């Protein structure tokens, strides 16, 4: 199996087929336009489906709205899951939910399916929980968007497939230089429980903040430095889930975690009075960064030097001969 280099998603179809843990209905996961993932139903004629429930696919990625070429659409499974309560369900979809409910009861009576015992919350129906969620889980912030990791941020693993072992990559996603711990606002949650959370915490919590867009793309893909941009397929589903204060209040941090301080470089800090006229421009292609004073020939700024080190590391890794050819 090969993935085309222009493909917009690395989610293999054979790993995206699943069943809802609450009703047992077959579903299929797709990557959304915002890098999250969504479980969708088969295609339906779009005319009777409310517009807010219409989704379509383009090059394997899910977008809101109907397909402009076929006039069909797909429906998110949580919107029609028979195991969840739908008090405001449109009349056009009541028959669909009724048929799914009959199939669910039939599978239960025949002993083919045992529904999940946890209380059903519509937003969490069929959501792919991480296989090994730890007791301590950190929240990661992307420009105000909060996602909950299955573990501590420094233990977050790459989800790509290693071409040598054909197993999940053992490398980590974490890089101390790409983020920092900051206090962020806790999203508003209605009700007495939400008010209690805001009262106890003051409406603030500690989260690992990644704001640089170049770093943000890699964290969104949950890939290590070696596999980011390599085209390697995902071995497991994306593990960062949307943070909800009512569902994940046990993981709200009111104190900054220890052990994430950057080590001093040990270099002496030189304070210049001003430009001396001898500036050196970075040798990186398209880079106009400069530094005061004369530097050796081929000097690169810290950004270009970091990019070059990553490129060399990735090239060295992929240049090593593998025992077996990749199975993509």
Automatic annotation (TrEMBL):
Source species of the chain: Streptomyces hydrogenans
Name of this protein: Uncharacterized protein
InterPro entries: DUF6083 (IPR045729)
Organism phylogeny: Bacteria, Bacillati, Actinomycetota, Actinomycetes, Kitasatosporales
Pfam families per the UniProt record, alphabetical: DUF6083 (PF19561)
């Amino acid at each position: 199996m090969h993935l085309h280099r222009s493909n917009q998603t690395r989610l293999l179809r054979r790993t995206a087929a699943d069943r809802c843990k609450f009703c047992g209905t077959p579903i299929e996961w797709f990557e959304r336009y915002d890098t999250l993932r969504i479980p969708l139903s088969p295609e339906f004629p779009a005319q009777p489906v409310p517009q807010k429930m219409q989704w379509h696919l383009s090059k394997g990625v899910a977008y809101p709205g109907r397909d402009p070429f076929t006039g069909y659409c797909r429906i998110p499974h949580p919107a029609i899951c028979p195991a969840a309560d739908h008090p405001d369900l449109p009349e056009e979809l009541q028959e669909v939910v009724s048929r799914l409910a009959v199939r669910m009861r039939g599978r239960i009576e025949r002993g083919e399916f045992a529904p999940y015992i946890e209380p059903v919350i519509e937003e969490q129906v069929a959501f792919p929980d991480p296989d090994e969620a730890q007791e301590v889980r950190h929240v990661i912030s992307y420009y105000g968007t909060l996602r909950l990791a299955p573990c501590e941020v420094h233990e977050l693993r790459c989800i790509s497939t290693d071409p040598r072992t054909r197993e999940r990559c053992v490398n980590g996603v974490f890089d101390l230089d790409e983020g920092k711990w900051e206090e962020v606002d806790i999203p508003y949650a209605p009700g007495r429980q939400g008010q209690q959370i805001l009262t106890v915490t003051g409406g603030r919590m500690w989260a690992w903040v990644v704001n640089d867009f170049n770093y943000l793309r890699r964290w969104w893909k949950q890939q290590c430095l070696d596999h980011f941009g390599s085209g390697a397929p995902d071995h497991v589903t994306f593990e960062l889930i949307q943070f909800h204060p009512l569902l994940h209040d046990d993981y709200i941090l009111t104190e900054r975690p220890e052990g994430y301080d950057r080590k001093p470089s040990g270099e002496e800090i030189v304070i210049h009075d001003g430009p001396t006229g001898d500036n050196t421009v970075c040798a990186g292609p398209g880079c106009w960064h400069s530094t005061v004073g004369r530097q050796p020939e081929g000097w690169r700024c810290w950004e270009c030097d970091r990019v070059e080190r990553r490129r060399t590391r990735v090239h060295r890794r992929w240049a090593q001969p593998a025992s077996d050819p990749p199975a993509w």
